[in-house]
Amino acid sequence: MALSKDRAEIVGVKALGWLAGNDELLPVFLGSTGASTEDLRDNVQEPEFLGSVLDFVLMDDAWVVAFCDAEGIDYNEIAAARAMLPGGEQIHWT
């Protein structure tokens, strides 16, 4: 599933909003990334930051399911969105 860059950023913003509203996961994200609540607001339009949000959500299948179900997004769309944002390229070691 290929997405446009704009759609990938929309998915990233939705993930950020979902994460910001999750009282259990938000502190985990902030602690693991070193980001502050101000960083969430200040970087909402930065594709690199949105990629890091998607990286975090993609770490756990339960988080992916919860986010996608809450936002009505196909489960595969989150990975496709991550691939379209900076740093999401497939690395080929051969």
From TrEMBL:
InterPro entries: DUF3572. It comes from the Bacteria. Pfam families: DUF3572. This is Uncharacterized protein DUF3572.
